[in-house]
Amino acid sequence: QVQLVESGGGLVQAGGSLMLSCAASGRAFSSYAMAWFRQAPGKEREFVAAISSGFGSADYADSVKARFTISRDNAKNTVYLQMNSLKPEDTAVYYCAAEGRDRLSYNYWGQGTQVTVSS
After folding, report:
1. Predicted pLDDT of residue 100
2. How far apart are CA 1 and CA 103, in angstroms?
3. Mean pLDDT on 94-117
């Protein structure tokens, strides 16, 4: 079992920045891929970014490339999502996910943190 707790969401103006954190507990954190997803009101949940285990190679949705950066600190069992140049369309509940089976399928999910970008 893996437990995930997100933090760092909030209200920010367009063009601003936020950093989300996801603390994991349970099984060996460094051994599994981690990811961030988001869900806006009335829309399906969508992939945002993922980071592999080991060397930590990253993968991003086209909509966030060059603006968002995913990273992980295996010593702290934490994954981060640095979000820059935020846009109103980035407004969503952001979810952390662990132990990826493929790009969109993960075994464990956090409770989500709200990010609201005002225009």
Report:
1. 85
2. 20
3. 94
Give the helix/strand (H/E) hosting 62.
Answer: none
Question: What whole-number distance in Å separates Cα of residue 74 and Cα of residue 8?
Answer: 19
Mean pLDDT across 2-7: 95
Measured CA to CA, the distance from residue 12 to residue 30 in angstroms comes to 31
Predicted confidence (pLDDT) at residue 34 exceeds the cutoff of 80 = yes
Alpha-carbon distance of 92 to 89, in angstroms, equals 8
Can you tell me the distance from the alpha carbon of 101 to that of 39, in angstroms, rounded to the nearest whole number?
20
C-alpha to C-alpha distance for 24 and 42, rounded to whole angstroms = 28
Please check whether residue 36 is in contact with residue 49, taking contact to mean a CB–CB distance below 8 angstroms.
Answer: yes
Identify the weakest region by mean pLDDT among 5-14, 21-30, 57-66: 21-30
Cβ neighbours around 68 below 10 Å, total: 21
98, with CB counted inside 10 A (0-12, 13-18, 19+), is buried
Distance CA 119, CA 110 (A): 28
